[in-house]
Amino acid sequence: MKMYIYIIVFTIFFATNAFGEGIDSQNRSLLKILYANSNWNFIEKTSDSVYISEKKVNGTKLNAVKVEKVYNIEPQCFTEVIMNVGGYNSFLSNSNSLHSKVIEHTRDSLIGYQKIKVNIPFFDDREYFFYMSRKPFDIQSSNVMCYWILLDPKQDQKNFNRSDNATYLKQGAGLWKWEPVKSGKVKIAYILTMHPGGSIPDFVIEMINKNSIVGLLRDVENEVNSKNGLRG
């Protein structure tokens, strides 16, 4: 069976709201690496014109994966769907194996939780808490629609309740960004790096991340089209 790890989690570089104060993570240092346009290696183009690339994350054993596609849709429409964590269970194609919920939220940010049921023998389920925001993580990232980091319950101030039978994911970050193209349309990219925990071989991790990020982009695209009366 395929193990899909859909990660749509976001954060801000500086805490700017009540429940965000004091939240910190080493994962936030990954955001600038993911944002940079350099050192990406093209992998393939799918039948529905999704371009897939990857690059090595310096100083770690992780690879970053990027998917991008050109749309005639306002980026804000994507942001609204992505930020609606409470609605994930209604439109993600792997909703039977992924449980999402919001712990706390403000207008622009939230703390959320996801648990992934892993239907593979000898592998535990996965879970993580995350901090999400639609605000830029620094003054140079104004074209970032939203972004995320995973949170470590031992380091952050929230009293997170964890499962006894799940592997907790600690290392990961991701972001969505857009840029204009000559046709007057926009190119939207989703970029992430994460480790799904445990003793999973590197090549399996890369396969999981690539499959999940492509599926996620398609799910968000379909939901955006549905909400705006557009054809897929």
First-last Cα distance: 27 Å
Helix tally equals: 4
Number of beta-strand segments:
10
User: So, CATH architecture?
Assistant: 2-Layer Sandwich
What do we call the CATH homologous superfamily? START domain
The multimeric state of the shown protein is: single chain
Beta-strand percentage?
Answer: 25-35%
Q: Quickly count the domains.
A: 1
The average pLDDT score comes to 81
CATH topology: Alpha-D-Glucose-1,6-Bisphosphate, Chain A, domain 4
Indicate the CATH class. Answer: Alpha Beta
Q: Helix fraction?
A: 10-25%
Largest sheet: 10 strands, mixed
Structure write-up:
By secondary structure, the protein is of the alpha+beta class. The chain has a single domain (18-227), classed as START domain (Alpha-D-Glucose-1,6-Bisphosphate, Chain A, domain 4, 2-Layer Sandwich), CATH 3.30.530. Helix content is 19%, strand content 32%. It contains four helices and ten strands. The chain has helices at residues 30-35, 75-83, 88-91, 202-227; strands spanning 41-45, 51-56, 63-71, 98-105, 109-116, 125-133, 144-151, 166-168, 172-180, 186-194. Strands 1, 2, 3, 4, 5, 6, 7, 8, 9 and 10 form a ten-stranded mixed β-sheet that branches. Helix 2 packs across helix 4. It is globular, with a radius of gyration of 17 Å. 35% of the residues are buried. Residues 1-22 have low confidence and may be disordered.
